[in-house]
Please model this.
Amino acid sequence: MEHIRSEQLYAEACEIIPCGVSSSMRKNVKPLLFFERAEGPYYFDVDGNRYIDYTLAWGPLIAGSNHPFINKAVAEQLQRSYTLGAQHPLEVTLAKKLTGILPGVEQVAFSNTGSEAVQSAIRIARTYTGRNKIVKFEGHYHGWLNNVLVSYKPQPAQLGTPVASCGGQPAPEFEDTLVLPWNNLAAVKELLAARGHEIACVITEPVLANSGCCMPEEGYLQGIIDCCREHGVVSVFDEVITGFRLALGGAREYFGLRPDLSVYAKAIAGGFTMAALGGRKAVFDVIREGKTIHAGTYNGASVNLAAALATITVLSGDGCFTRLHAYGHALREHLQLAARKAGLLLVTAGTGSVFSMHFGLREEPRNYADTLAADAALFAKFRALMLHEGIHLLPDGRWYIGITHTDAELAFTRQAIDNTFAGLAGS
Model:
């Protein structure tokens, strides 16, 4: 499989775009491919190669690419407006839809990206509580801003203390950010008992999708919610990944939970730029009362809201999430079986619609620290061989499943997995 044109474009891009990419998260992907188009579950690169895609653009393309129903909704909206910077009926329609399907969500505020919506959640929580400190967990990603890009991928020696994740993060900008290990409810209780009067919110991914797809232990997430309520702290679920992916009602439905606030993005609009913040009406009183603001030029942009409404309509189809999870679980089973046949240690972790694979581990990781023992170099070899087989994967071991992945793609992927493990066993 040749990538000559991609290599040429990458060389050109490096001359005029830093690292040749538009997001630093993409710069370490090897080979760095340039894509021409996408259709359903397939990507097509500039060299004419076709791949079954399990990256889904890092999550948003839950309905695949070029979906006819979403295309129709967007095309019709384009004839009316791109964005208005003012109110329009779609805001009311979508807000009613969201409050109807997201358990415990009484009101929503629209935004553009997960990073922005997370900042709104923190600002609202601080205003609501009159406190400044926030609590996050090691390995959790809540956007690229300085106050939350903390202990995202710390080294083993950095565990247990808040650390910047890149340059340009002055310590004063995250001095109010406290960091804990995940899946350790005792640590949450101890911190809030001692410093709850200082803490505005606790923010967590309900499934640690950004660092190995670690699942919450029984009672852990409800324990966070209960502990927050005991100390007057706002509980925030970052559902940028899990929202509209675990279930139509996200982690709230999947786990049967009701945090104070939840952040949604990625899959909410099927590939269009869209985010939302949803939760209890009382928490949003600080906006109504003029104590703080929720702002953004493109908040509620009409084209994006049309895409979101269409995406949610598509995902509301009978059996949609049953099929998503069944497909993912079938892949996980095949991966683990193929690894055993090849004599390699492998576990998978997560759900059916989003999961990660970890070479070298005997048990599913509980938290970020556990993932550090996985063999990342072996996965890099696996990914390279899978790419040669026509399977496009993310570089961190994460798989995203979409509704356009069918039995045909499953059969092809299973064969690619078998071929790849045969190659790994022989190397």
Notes: The two ends are 19 Å apart (CA to CA). The first strand starts at residue 35 and ends at 39. The chain has 13 helices and 14 strands.
